[in-house]
Amino acid sequence: MSRFLFLLLTMVFMGAVMGQEPPPESDVLIEDFEHHEARWFAGGDFLLVQPRFSEAIAFAEGNQTLSTFDIAARPLDFSYGSSLRAFVARDFGTNRLQFTYWHVNGDTGENAASSPGRFMVDPFGNVVGTVGVIDPSDARFGGAPVTGGDAISAQASVKANLFDIDVHVTLFQDDCWDLALTAGARIADIDQSYSSRITNAGAFFSGGEYTAEFFGAGPRVGAIVRRHMGQRKRFSVFVDTRGALILGNYDLAFTATATTPGPFQASQSSDATRLIPVGEIELGASWRANDHLSFSAAYLFHSWWDLGASGGNFGGFYGGADDTNLMSFDGLVARAEFAY
Q: Residue 270 above 50 pLDDT?
C-alpha cells in the first residue's frame, strides 16, 4: 500500500511540474498571493498510520525431529490506526512560527498453541511445547528435552508524544512555486512495551515483560517545496521533508517469570544516553477553499533510527537476523487549516 501511494503521489507531482503551463498573467488573481501581516493559523490532522519495527518478534516457532531443526520468527504486525496532530502558527508575511503536537499509538498481539513436533520460544527463553537443546555450550545439551506450557500470547505496544516548534522562512516565491526552509526543535517522549504469557492447561506457566522508554530533545530542520496550479492558484502539490537529531535518555527494563521447577523471577535494567536520528517526508496536495480555510491530503513516512530492536536471545534457539534497528510510521494524513 505504501509503495503504491508513494508512486501515485510522485507521478502527480512530476506531472504537475512537467505538464502544467503557467496561466496568462491576466488570469492570475493577485490578491490570492498577498501575504497578510501577523495572521494566526490553527489546524488539525487526522492520521491513519501504521507503526513498523525492523525487528518486532512475537516469538519464534519451529519443528524438531531426530534429524532436523527448523525455526522462524513470528512477527508482530501492527495495523493502521488513527491518531491526531494539532498545530497553531503565527504568520509574519514570508515567515511563520509554528507549534505542533502529535500523539500516536499502536498495539498488536499474536497467539499460538503447541502441537506434536511443534514448539515456540519467547524472547526470554520460555518454551511452549517440547524441544531439545541444540547449543553445545548450553548445560542442557544432550540432556532431557525442555518442556514448557501449551499456549502463548504475546502483546506489544508503542506510544509517542511529539512536540515541535519551527520557524518557516520563505526563500523563493512566484506565481507557481514556493520554497521554504524550516528550523526549530523537537521534544520526544516514546514508550515501547512487549509482554508474553505462556499457559499450561489455562494456568500461568511462564512469561516476561520488556519496556523501553526514550525522552529527549534536539534540533529539527527541513524544506518545503510547493507547486501552485489552477487559474486562481488554489490547488497545489507539495513535498515536505524534515530531519532531526534527538539527544535523550533511553531506559530499558525486562522481567522474566517461571513457575517450574519452582517460582523464579529474573530482572534486568539499563540506563543509557542516545542520539537518535529522525527522517520525515510528506507528499501531498492542498486546496484553498477561500482566504481563511484550506484542506490537504498527504502520505507520510517517518523513521527513527536506533529505536527498533525488540531484544531477547530466545533461549539460544533463535538468533535475530535484522540489525537496522528502525522504528517507523507511515500512512495517510488529512488536514484542515483555518486562518484568522
A: yes
CB 228 within 8 A of CB 33: no
Residue with grid cell 522562512, as numbered in its chain? 169
Q: How far is CA 33 from CA 168, 240, 248, in A?
A: 17, 20, 42
pLDDT at residue 311 in the model = 66
Mean pLDDT of the chain: 86
| Contact of 178 with 168, CB cutoff 8 Å | no
Q: What is the CATH number of the domain that holds 212?
A: 2.40.128
- Euclidean distance between CA atoms 316 and 68, whole angstroms: 17
Using alpha carbons, list the distances in angstroms from residue 240 to 75, 175, 179, 290, 301: 31, 19, 10, 23, 10
- Residues 102, 244, 311, 57, CA torsion sign: positive
Alpha carbon distance 141, 151 (integer Å)? 24
pTM of the model: 0.82
Q: How far is CA 213 from CA 49, 188, 250, 304, 307, in A?
A: 21, 10, 6, 14, 10
Contact of 88 with 99, CB cutoff 8 Å: yes
Q: Model confidence over 80-122: pLDDT tens digits?
A: 999 999 999 999 888 999 999 999 999 999 999 988 889 999 9
> 180 lies in which domain range?
2-339
User: Over 90: is that where the pLDDT of 271 sits?
Assistant: yes
The answer to whether the beta carbons of residues 284 and 10 sit under 8 Å apart is no
Number of structural domains the chain divides into:
1
